[in-house]
Amino acid sequence: MQENLEKMATIIADSGSTKTHWAVVEEGGKTTMKETLGINPIHMSVDEIKDVIPEHLAPRISHLAIRFFGAGCVTPFSEKVEKALKDIYPDADIFVGSDMLGAACALFGNDEGIACILGTGSNSCLYDGKEIVKNVPPLGYILGDEGSGATLGKFFFNALFKGFLPKEMLEEYLEKEQLTYAEIIERVYRKPLANRFLASTSHFIASHLDSEPLRELVKENFRGFFRRNVMQYKRPDLEVGIVGSIAHVYRKELTEVAREENIKLNRIVQSPIDLLVERL
Questions:
Q1: Using CA atoms, how far apart are residues 196 and 187, in angstroms rounded to an integer?
Q2: Nearest Cα to 149, choosing from 36, 249, 47?
Q3: Nearest 5°: phi and psi at 251?
Q4: 130 contact partners, CB below 8 Å, separation of at least 6
């Protein structure tokens, strides 16, 4: 029993607003994975965050380090996550950073590069191998978030109702999703979490990429991301890495646009958690 009490481990967390992926890496490389609800300190109190954090990830570990990377984890909001973790694991060595920093560390380790996130929202940064040195503001799904699932949804509805996509596709979408024009307008303009609703159109879009106008719409979304974000760093010499569900699902289209725009696309991964574990 005494031998167990002297074990060391690191807990790594990659959190979005929807899901949190946890990895417990013990001495010798044994890794245990767990998934919980998402944590976003901008919208959650310390007590709400504590309700999500698993209390028994490392019950027999005496020397524990926690590395938490999450959406909304910027000062002063990150302090709420740090307090919640400290309340549950009072003796742990705790670091809390943004999901953007987590993505950069996962993609590039100690090397310089341009790291990007393409999920429900989008973001990017210039990373020097240790920290983020520049960040083009993403501005959210109304003013920005080019390349994201939410912006893809905006493009989709615009093209669908303005006649830039086949009429049959409009009828199929409304039938499949059991929605009307009025209900879509209400979901976007009057109900909460409009960004998630817009991003949910990706399921339909991904299954209809045999439609060239729709496929071109997907590519145009990525083209906007590269031109309005990645190219603003003015570092064409650097490689670009991307994490996120949208990047993963539309890997082919994303790669095509990167090549057309002379972007040195290095790596596309759905979630950074496995790469973060490898970087330990």
A1: 10
A2: 249
A3: -55, -45
A4: 110
